[in-house]
Design goal:
7-stranded parallel β-sheet, 13 helices, Rossmann fold, alpha/beta
Length: 369
C-alpha cells in the first residue's frame, strides 16, 4: 500500500545537518514549511548540530545511522519504509545530491514523486533519468548551466530557486564591551565551511599568516565546521605558527552570534554552487571576501558588497581582508550594500513561493492545494 497521492506532507531526507550551506538551506526550508503549515518529517543519519534547525524541529527529526550506506539498505528498508508510510506523505524532497539514490529507492517503493536540491557540481551521469524524479532544484545560474551542459540533466528537469534566508529585521548589537572600546577591539575574521578539499580552507590559513604579518595589530580568526581535512588543517596552522590566532569550531556555535561579532567574512572555495553562508554574512551586514568561482560570481558584487579574488590566491585574499580591516567606512558601506541585496533578492518568502510551485507540479495538483 502506497502513501496517499494527495497528501500535503513532504518527507525530507538530509545528509548530516552541520554548519555550511546545505545545513542552513535545510533549516530555512523547515522554517518556511512550518510557516505555510506543511508537515515535514525529516530523516538523516546523524543528529543535527545545535543551533542550525529551528526550535521545535527535533520532534519531526528521525535518525537512522546506516541511511547512506547502500550495503545496509536491505536491512533497514523495512524500518525506513514503515517510517515513511506512517507519515502519509505525497512527496519526497532530498536536501542534496547525496540523498538522490535513497530518494529514488524510497519513491519507487512508495510510488510517490520526489525532487532533489543540488548545491554542488556533479559528474556526468550522477543523476540518471528516473520516472519518479520530477525536478532537480538548483540554487544558482552557474550550477544550472553546469547540470544541463556538463552533468547531462534535461533542461526541463532543472529548476532554479536561489537559496532564500530569513533576513533579520534588526541586527543584534555587539557586546557592550566591544561598543565601549571599538577602536582598540581585536577584529574578527570568520569562515563557516565543511573541511573538505573543494573548500580550500588551507588558502584561508595561509592568508591568515599574511594578514598577521602585515596588519600590524592583533586579529582573531574562526574556522567553523568539521570534515576529513581538519587534522591536516590543524597541522598547517601549527606550521604557519598561527594556532594561537585561529579557533577551530565543530559547529558548537550559533552562526548568527558569530556573524554579529565578525568584521570580515571569508569564503575561499575552489568551486562553489551558490554560497549560502556568504549570503548569511551579507544579511548580517558583514563585508565579504570570496573566490571568483561558480555561484559566488553572481552573489558577490565585486567592490560593492565585498571583494572577489582568484581561486587559490592567498596573497590576494589577505590583501582584501586587510583593506577592509583598515577601512571601517568601506567595510560598513559594503556591509550595508550586501544586506540590501539579501533583503530584496534572496528572501525566504521568495524561495518558498517557488518551492511550493514545484511541490504542486510534482504532485500533479494546482498550486496552493
Amino acid at each position: 500500500m502506497s502513501a496517499p497521492a494527495d497528501s500535503n506532507a513532504v518527507l525530507l531526507i538530509s545528509e548530516p545537518v552541520v554548519p555550511g550551506g546545505i545545513g542552513i538551506y535545510t533549516g530555512n526550508l523547515l522554517r518556511g514549511l512550518t510557516h505555510v503549515g506543511i508537515t515535514h518529517p525529516i530523516i538523516s543519519n546523524r543528529e543535527p548540530v545545535a543551533g542550525i534547525l529551528p526550535d521545535g524541529e527535533s520532534e519531526q527529526f528521525e535518525v537512522l545511522e546506516s541511511l547512506f550506506r547502500p550495503f545496509w539498505w536491505p536491512l533497514i528498508r523495512s524500518r525506513l519504509e514503515n517510517w515513511a508510510r506512517e507519515r502519509e506523505a505525497g512527496l519526497i524532497h532530498g536536501m542534496s545530491a547525496v540523498t538522490a539514490p535513497l530518494c529514488a529507492r524510497l519513491a519507487a517503493r512508495l510510488k510517490i514523486p520526489y525532487i532533489v536540491t543540488v548545491h554542488h557540481y556533479q559528474k556526468k551521469g550522477a543523476m540518471p533519468p528516473d520516472p519518479w524524479l520530477k525536478a532537480v532544484v538548483t540554487v544558482s545560474d552557474a550550477l544550472r548551466e553546469h547540470l544541463v551542459n556538463d552533468a547531462g540533466l534535461s533542461k526541463e528537469l532543472v529548476r532554479l530557486i536561489p537559496a532564500g534566508i530569513d533576513v533579520p529585521g534588526e541586527l543584534p548589537a555587539r557586546p557592550v564591551e566591544y561598543a565601549q572600546d571599538e577602536e582598540s577591539s581585536i577584529p574578527l575574521v570568520s569562515c563557516f565551511s565543511k573541511l573538505v578539499p573543494r573548500k580550500d580552507c588551507a588558502c584561508f590559513l595561509r592568508a591568515i599568516r599574511r594578514v598577521l604579518d602585515t596588519l600590524g595589530r592583533e586579529c582573531s580568526f574562526v574556522l567553523a565546521g568539521d570534515g576529513p581535512e581538519e587534522p591536516a588543517l590543524r597541522k598547517l596552522a601549527k606550521e604557519l605558527q598561527i594556532e594561537r590566532n585561529v579557533t577551530f569550531c565543530h559547529g558548537a556555535i550559533r552562526y548568527d552570534e558569530l556573524l554579529r561579532d565578525t568584521d570580515v567574512y571569508v569564503q575561499c572555495s575552489k568551486i562553489e554552487g551558490f554560497g549560502t553562508m556568504v549570503l548569511q554574512a551579507m544579511a548580517h551586514g558583514v563585508p565579504v571576501v570570496a573566490t571568483a568561482t561558480g555561484g559566488l560570481l553572481s552573489l558577490v558584487q565585486d567592490s560593492e558588497t565585498g571583494y572577489l579574488v582568484p581561486v587559490g590566491d592567498h596573497e590576494a585574499l589577505a590583501t582584501r581582508i586587510i583593506n577592509l580591516l583598515n577601512d571601517p567606512e568601506l567595510s560598513h558601506r559594503f556591509g550595508e550594500a550586501g544586506r540590501q541585496i539579501a533583503t530584496t533578492e534572496y528572501t525566504l518568502d521568495r524561495m518558498m513561493a517557488k518551492t511550493l510551485e514545484i511541490y504542486a507540479e510534482a504532485r500533479g495538483v494546482p498550486a496552493g492545494v
